[in-house]
Amino acid sequence: MGNSKSHVYLIPIGYDFPEILSDALSEMVSAFLYGQQVHLLAPMKFTPDLLLDDRIDLHDTVLPYVEDPIQVRKYRAQKKKQIEKNNGQPLTIPGELKQMNADIVLSKLHHKLTKDWHGADNAYVIIGLTLRDLCDPMGCQKQIELLERIDRKLESVRDRQRKCATKLRNAMMKGYPKKQKAAQELSKILDIEKDNLIEQKKFEQKKLKKLSKYVTNKTNENHRTSVMSFYRYDPKRDRSSLAVDPGLQADQKVLVKRSCKMIIHHICEMFGMKHCIYFHCRMNGSATNDQQDLSPVHLCPVCLRKLFSCTGIFTTPKVIERYFRMQQCTGGILKECFGEDTSRWFRQRAGTITSAA
Fold first, then answer.
1. Burial of 193 (0-12, 13-18, 19+ CB in 10 A)
2. pTM of the model
3. Which CATH architecture fits 7-52+96-136+215-314?
4. What percent of the chain lies above the pLDDT cut of 90?
5. CB 218 within 8 Å of CB 100
6. By the 8 A CB rule, do 2 and 35 touch?
């Protein structure tokens, strides 16, 4: 980022996006990317064309690639009965439950970046913020194409295995030990290649299955646009009907804390940083909200060095200033969300560096 991308724009999507959440996200990003210019824009108008078309059923599209044919037939037969009960009309989802199409949102953000702002140069990054669930039809299609390529590779390996088996049989029948040994070695190599492809296919199938349900964010690196959904971080979604409701204010605190932590994680991913495997760090991967709640706000030394390289922080005074800025952020308007421990950690870290310098 540094000098080439020094502006980050946060733009809520829809006028119903909570002001307390947008202000908290802007404050956290401004502190985390110390030295960069972070701007919170007025909300972008929500329009129905941002939602996924009722005619697109992602689950039905990906089902043949992740389930056996029997399950596919059962699902489609059940869907056909539901359509018949609905007088032949396609099944519709209530407007408030419809998913937002990430590709359309990114397209509109790109248009705003290049047209509405009169062709902004590469000094701008724009992140859309929404509380609606996101889906990624184009990502599903790319994943399906990847599975089809793996299937073609598998078929090629199986064909080579059949030819290798024929060579081995002929060598054994004619008594050619060298050819027999070569065919056996090739057979072992092909077996390993096939097993690797099968494992890769299983992994990509799980990825496609999850991708067809929802995504929490999507980025277009070429257009410098991104959209992030906080729908899955709402604590009300994790609470059972028998659980005690702690109240709206408590839920808002949890939502703000989770959202701030995840936008930090997502911005680091936009910079090309991978999940951290070295220390307890904000860049650790998390599969559930409970795992995310246990992760810290700060980065480990490895990831922090990467961030400083992206944001152009190369001197000790700048590092200290950033820590004090993070302490002011987590100990100020976000103190009730993050608690005293988080603010104290940043303050102690700044003090340790100051005394060592």
1. middle
2. 0.82
3. 3-Layer(aba) Sandwich (3.40)
4. 38
5. no
6. no
